[in-house]
Specification:
single chain, 8 helices, flat, 6 strands, alpha+beta, 3-stranded antiparallel β-sheet
């Protein structure tokens, strides 16, 4: 039988109240980057990518909070051997290896020409390769060497560089001003004028063409409400020999 705590009874030492503001250990503590070396490797790579510039190992370890790079030989070797890490033995600097090797406007134009048969390039991927790609794209656009798409929307997001394509026509492929002015004089007819044009040309709009009404075929096998005129097949004809006519309703014989 369990004991019942009464008013005024002493409290055992094992059931002391928890001090306010104490640490609750029901959930694991936030260990930041984690202790597993693969988690630390990913964190270091993410920082190197966002940094987008050469950096010393000491600065990398401190700023990325992966200080295990300074004392864990296995982690450091795995980091150096990663396909996205470039290490200069002369300067002992680390930098992230981007998708493209860009450092000038000429490099950018060469890359856009190489990718022209496959389409354009996203500005986001180009920025990861070279921080100064934005002004270079705008200069090439003014020179008539590339075509640029920009974002819509409102505020700061409007007009942002989105993708870049090779402008194969360039300035030499500009349309004559006479043709541009002639095109601007053409006006799109309204609905009434367009309908009158169709009638004059002997054409009809799709909405005015009557649709052909097809007869609905009756489905077989379904019992309908109007199937009451079918002939009935009378069974039990052997009762005829007994003087019983099964085609008539049964009327009981009244007893005398």
């Amino acid at each position: 039988m369990s004991a019942v705590k009464r008013e005024g009874s002493p409290v055992s030492a094992s059931k002391k109240k928890r001090a306010p503001g104490g640490t609750v250990y029901s959930q694991p503590l936030d260990t930041g980057i984690g202790r597993h070396w693969k988690t630390q490797l990913f964190t270091a790579l993410s920082f190197l990518k966002s940094h987008n510039a050469p950096i010393r190992l000491d600065d990398l370890a401190i700023r990325s909070e992966v200080e295990a790079l300074l004392n864990n030989h296995e982690l450091l070797e795995s980091f150096k051997a990663h396909e996205r890490v470039l290490f200069d033995e002369k300067t002992e600097l680390y930098r992230y290896k981007p998708d493209f090797n860009l450092s000038s406007k000429a490099d950018l134009l060469t890359l856009v020409r190489r990718y022209a048969p496959r389409g354009g390039l996203t500005v986001k991927s180009l920025r990861e390769s070279w921080a100064g790609v934005g002004p270079a794209i705008e200069e090439l656009e003014k020179e008539g060497k590339v075509l640029v798409t920009r974002t819509g929307g409102a505020g700061d997001k409007e007009g942002q560089l989105k993708a870049v394509f090779l402008d194969e026509l360039g300035h030499t492929g500009k349309v004559d001003k006479e043709f541009v002015d002639l095109w601007a004089t053409l006006k799109t007819p309204n609905d009434d004028e367009l309908a009158a044009f169709f009638v004059k040309a002997g054409l009809a709009a799709a909405s005015s063409v009557p649709t052909a009404v097809t007869a609905k075929s009756k489905k077989k096998g379904k019992k309908g409400a109007g199937n009451n005129n079918r002939r009935l097949k009378i069974t039990n004809t052997h009762l005829k020999d007994l003087g019983i006519d099964v085609s008539k309703d049964y009327v009981p014989i009244k007893k005398k």
